[in-house]
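Predict the assembly for these two chains.
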Amino acid sequence: MTGTPYVTLEAVTRQWGGKGGVRDVSLAVPEGAFVSILGPSGCGKSTLLRLISGLEAPDAGCVRIAGRDMTARPASDRGLSMVFQSYALFPHLSVRENILFGMRVRRVQRAEREAKLAQAVAMLGLEGLEGRKPAALSGGQRQRVALARAVVSGHPLCLMDEPLSNLDAKLRHSVRRDIKGLQRRLGLTVIYVTHDQTEAMSLSDQVVLMRDGAVEQVGSPRALYADPVSTFAAEFIGDPPMAIVEGAALGRPGALIGLRPEHLSPAASVPDLAGIVCEVEYMGAATHLIVDHPAARGLILSVPGHADWRPGQRIGLHLPQEHRVLFDAQTGKAKKDPQQDYGGDRRQTAPRDSRKAPQPHPSTD
Amino acid sequence: MPDLAALRRRRHAIHGWLLLTPALVMLTTFAFYPTVATLWTSLFSRGTRRRPTEFVGLENYQRLFDDPTFWLVAKNNLLYAGVTIPISIALALAMALWANSKIPARSFVRTAYFTPTVLPMIAAGNLWLFFYTPGFGVLDQIGALFGAPSVNWLGQPETALWAVCAVTIWKEAGFFMIFYLAALQTIPPDLKEAAQIEGASRWAYTRRIVLPLLMPTTLFILVNAMINSVKLIDHLFILTKGGPSDASKLILYYIWENAFAFFDAPAAAAMTVLVLAVLGALAAFQFFVIDRRTHYR
């Protein structure tokens, strides 16, 4: 993640009748970076991507690509390729013609066309499928054709709009790695829209978390996980996400206290909080205990291996001081607390992913 | 004990036939039987009081081929189809592309284009009769503004068929536009955006993506237009009655004349059989040859 900003948005606004869309978004995407735009549906992340692509024009603000002001330029001038959620393959054209389409309309020489086609086909493992129509391909193959179309364009910037959402879970993992590999190999700058925080966390150098048309938090996946700026960020990132407990229940009125599931554990002696187990989800490597407490939401305990708990049982919870993250109860924004150490930089066990998180506390097994 | 599998198979067969029956009855009564009856009639002589009907083989067809009016009418119909079909399809496509784009008063435009289709052909004929009337018709009045002489569009053999063609194009284009409009709306907007990002101009997008995706619709419209060019003759009764001197007479109008004005049923039947054969061959050509080169989604 080095280099100068390749794509820059300056106070970009695009709304429809004062609603939806994005308001006043500024963003800098470094050259060669993999940046995810993450957020719940309707938060404006696709609009943001369309503003960068030029398929949508901003009401206000400025879009710069490679240092040039592109705000008023059409999509074809911006030197970018795009992978659509629906793949947008031309149904009447064969795989070969789909990949060649852009070069044909740009009147690229025949020899160059053929060379690039062969290269893209080999790179994405589409050999033998060149003559097929999109309808005769599987979802994963269509996805690869869409990627090949982006690759042959030779543009340094690639926009992806939820490219994995139409694939089944297993395929999603392998294509995810393919995309990342492709980006590395070609040195592409990728802007990737998704609503799936696992995708965003595992792929990106930088995550842009959006909420209601505005940027909530920008940072590395690790920073987002360890230092959420608000309860919204805390509850959006992580699987399962951060639990939020009202401060009054823990002797800190006026605050909300957030805790990652892997830091919760059954209390050995005096519990910090006592709740009732309302659901037990066995995941193989870990068991998730969903705990009900009147002053808490999203209280999920992740204990390694199989845990022998039954719904309806009372459970005492240990909420380690050093992992408590404080939020303001009114604004939901993170609070700096001098006594608290919640900084990801200083925490030794800062995990990137809850599943792989080290477990500093004894389990019930 | 009866064989259960056989029993079930028979029940399936009965079920199938029951489902087929309504369509079969309707088609037999109104399509198959009349076709066979027409073919049968065309092989017999015209019966009079003194000479009863007798089998004459292909004599009626021979008589038809010797009739110069038949050839003139066939030529008229070919010209009529050759002019009205491509023009109305091209016009329909152009109107659909326009009415599908983001323009002000879009639904008004669509409705305006579709209005001629809603009018009965007889009403449209009367409307155009007023347009064409020499002296005080709309066309002549507009022409007079520019100092053009009065033209009797329907009254002279050189212009009559063209005047009839114009009415048909006006009537059909709006109808075909609806099919194109429906087809255009099934093309996902993603495709346009993908083409845009690839640098395709509007024209390149239309030619390489939209037109190929509209091929199934074009084929359907082509079949309909072809059938209509033979079938739709109501306006002739109002505008020209086939005249002057058969210049605007079309096949079906001539068949009608033979059957109900000259009371020569065998001649009409023979002509009908010929028309059916030609239309059948055309439909087969379209479905078996053009169809293969068409992409269906």
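The radius of gyration of chain A is 23 Å. Chain A has a mean pLDDT of 85.
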